[in-house]
Amino acid sequence: MDDVLIIGGSFAGLTAAMQLGRARRQVTVLDTGLNRNRYAQSAHNIFGHDGTPPSDLLATARQQLTTYPTVKLAHGRAETVSGEPDEFTVQTAEGQSFSAKRLILAYGIVDEFPPIPGFAESWGKTVIHCPFCHGYEVAGKPWGLLYSSPMSLHGPVLYSNWTDDITLILDGHEIIEAERHKLEQRNVRILDGKLRSIEQNNGQVRGVTMEDGTQVALAALYAHPQNHPSASLHEQLGLETKSTPTGSMIVVGDMQATSKPGIFAAGDLSMPMHSVTFATNSGSLAAMGALQSMMV
Ligand SMILES: Cc1cc2nc3c(=O)[nH]c(=O)nc-3n(C[C@H](O)[C@H](O)[C@H](O)COP(=O)(O)OP(=O)(O)OC[C@H]3O[C@@H](n4cnc5c(N)ncnc54)[C@H](O)[C@@H]3O)c2cc1C
């Protein structure tokens, strides 16, 4: 039996594994290899690694973990979970079984692409969700913002750090007159109609076409699609969750402890704001939490 089974071997999960491996604990990381930012050519805003491809960051982390003989990396999709502290069991879709004293859930979230032609093709390239990650490269150019929730109305204020040419595409949603007035005072162009398609070449956005035929030239489109956790283990375990503007997250307390003993959560799954740095930080905390809980 492992001390800790980590489900999800990306930024959060591998950070937790490193910390536990260095504490000479027996750890297995179960992973399906689908890190959320795999659509982006490079990852930004990461200490010491700005501009490095995400796959390179993860490959380096996996390679560095081979130094620690108590850490095992396994490929498989965790599907069912049962048990309690000191005797959790996880079964994979491939028919493997793992048991561990503690669990760290780090299986991330999946973005649900809207069925707009050009969206999926451009996701992570010039259809982007986070200006800190990929805004610098398109600064000073015309940006679009696809409305997804009232949270979208905060976008233009933040984005004014990068560009003063912003078009808000309401895509059929209504906003109150006071909000419209505030945005117009900031020189934000507002398109009320439905978005028909995103015009792009190999993921490089050139503009959008609305249902009424209106066309606007853009260099980037900001979008915050709905998301959902990548697996349902937290539901099987009856963990407390809460809604975020775009999906849901596992509720965590000190040291990333969930609402049930012996179970910790880290990464995008456990927070409303998402970045590699937040994920690695929370992975490190979860590892410390799991370790402390075994030292009583
Ligand atoms: C397009 C895009 C670009 C981004 N660019 C940046 C950037 O430049 N800088 C930045 O800081 N952040 C960026 N982010 C955010 C960043 O990708 C996430 O915050 C980060 O990947 C979260 O790490 P994580 O370990 O929580 O989850 P993920 O990276 O999503 O990893 C989850 C892992 O769990 C595995 N998994 C899922 N289900 C199971 C299962 N049932 N069993 C086993 N394994 C499972 C997956 O295969 C995956 O490897 C970007 C996000 C997107 C969508």
UniProtKB/TrEMBL annotation:
**Which UniProt keyword terms apply here?**
Flavoprotein, Oxidoreductase
Domain of life assignment: Bacteria
InterPro entries per the record?
A: FAD/NAD-bd_sf, FAD/NAD-binding_dom, Ferredoxin-NADP_redctase_2
A Gene Ontology molecular function term for this protein is: oxidoreductase activity
Query: Any stretches that span the bilayer, and where are they?
Result: none
Q: Does the keyword Acyltransferase apply?
A: no
Q: Which Pfam families match?
A: Pyr_redox_2
Provide the FAD/NAD(P)-binding domain boundaries.
3-281
Protein name per Swiss-Prot or TrEMBL: Thioredoxin reductase
What organism is recorded for this protein? Devosia aurantiaca
